[in-house]
Structure formats: C-alpha cells, structure tokens
Amino acid sequence: xxxxxxxxxxxxxxxxxxxxxxxxxxxxxxxxxxxxxxxxxxxxxxxxxxxxxxxxxxxxxxxxxxxxxxxxxxxxxxxxxxxxxxxxxxxxxxxxxxxxxxxxxxxxxxxxxxxxxxxxxxxxxxxxxxxxxxxxxxxxxxxxxxxxxxxxxxxxxxxxxxxxxxxxxxxxxxxxxxxxxxxxxxxxxxxxxxxxxxxxxxxxxxxxxxxxxxxxxxxxxxxxxxxxxxxxxxxxxxxxxxxxxxxxxxxxxxxxxxxxxxxxxxxxxxxxxxxxxxxxxxxxxxxxxxxxxxxxxxxxxx
Length: 302
What we know:
Order of helices and strands: EEEEEEEEEEEEEEEEEEEEEEEEE
Oligomer: single chain
Radius of gyration: 19 Å
Mean pLDDT: 93
Low-confidence stretches: none
C-alpha cells in the first residue's frame, strides 16, 4: 500500500502519497466556509492514478504522438504507458513509487529514480519538495539526467481544481494551440483572435469544455469561488510558460497544468524547437521548476 503523510500549517492541510508523488488532498479549514477541498478528491471507488488531485509530470508532459520521442540521433518509438491511453502520456513519475520523508509538520521531500528501460531509455532522478505556509502550498521539482547522452526533458504539474457552479477562472496567455481532426496541435492562434479560448476576463469554469495548450502564459491564474468566499492564485516558475486547460462536460473539476513545453514538443518535428519548450539535458545537467497555490479571502463589495 502506498505510504501517506500529512502536512499542516495554519488553515491549510495536505496529504502526500508515495504512489506517483501525488498530492492526494489539499484543504482549506476556515470558520467562514468550513473545510474546503481546493483540489478535486479522487472518488473512493477509483484506483486510477491519473485521477489523483495533483501529480508531478516527469520527465515530460502530455502526449508523445504515435509513441515517437525525438532525440539527436533520430526518433525512438516508445510503448504506451497506460491501458486507457493509446500513446505514452505524462511521463514515468506519475506511475512510479517515490521514496517519501516528512521533514517537519509543514514540509516533505520525495525522490524518484528511473533506470533506462523500454518506456524511457534514459536514466534520471527527480526530487520533489512540498511545503505549506499559512496560506499557500509550494511544489518544487528538480530533474537530473543520469545518462551518458543528452536526454529530452520536460516538467510540469497536473492539479485538478475543485469548482462550484459559480467558480470563475481568469489568466493571460499569448496564444492557444488549435488541433486538427486527429487531435494533433496544428497552429497557434493569438489569444485575442480565438474568443472561445480567451481568459483575460473571468469566465465561469463550469461552462468550459476544452483540452488545449495555452502558450506564453506567465501567471497568475485566478480561480474565484464566491460561494466559499475564497480565491486561489496559481503561479509558477518562468520555465513553465505553457498552461494546459482541460475539462470535460458536467465535471466538478478544472485542470490547469503549468508545463515547460507545448503539447507534442518532444515528438513532433515541427514543434521540436526551443521556442516550443523542447530541450535536451546534458549528462549530469539538472532542470528545476516550481508551482505555488495561494488561498485568499474573496473581496466582496459592501
């Protein structure tokens, strides 16, 4: 059974699992609104790792189309890593066991080491540090290439935010990647030219249905929950300049995933460029990113 530990600071509490390095709950305890799940809990019936409230994306995010991984020598074809997905998705970390140790009441560290195999032919290690302050949860990932050759690499976070009927979302990005009939990223449209994908003004989260990559995001994302009288701010390090927005109809959640590269950047030749976030880690080189989730009282007019 996966190991679990609990962190507490002020009104925030968080639980962390060794399975997938997942955050299995993040709650705000306040007199005004009771206990609030900031991240959507996994249903008791589900054993699906993919449905954990949040998990790290290591050593890449989103899909490797056709199982293709581009390396300097050419292209490798990797097998799918989950029976529900026809192509490799979200890397190796979310399906691995992480060693987990609690540092104190409000912080913990996890480590995941991967030996080169058919699913990812490079060795690496990754450290995740999670800490709470009185009003924020802070997540840091650090990935190191342990192979003797350059390794394609990307990092990110996959939080499923709980939403109510009156919850709104707002953020600024430069462009959104549109998809073709096969679901492949086809073209990046300026945000202002694609009204359905424009978030510079608050929009009801429950009206969103999409699975798109927003480029040139610098944060923050502001999620407001009027019924609960709180707002949540999502910020991330400069390397995480892409924001995946994902929601299916009728669901009480909204995925907002800060990631380091555009969807397909490690597998599609047209996107395998530094401008799309594709990068190679030299042997021994390290890459680090962070995400911060801050809770604030919602300002209401008198």
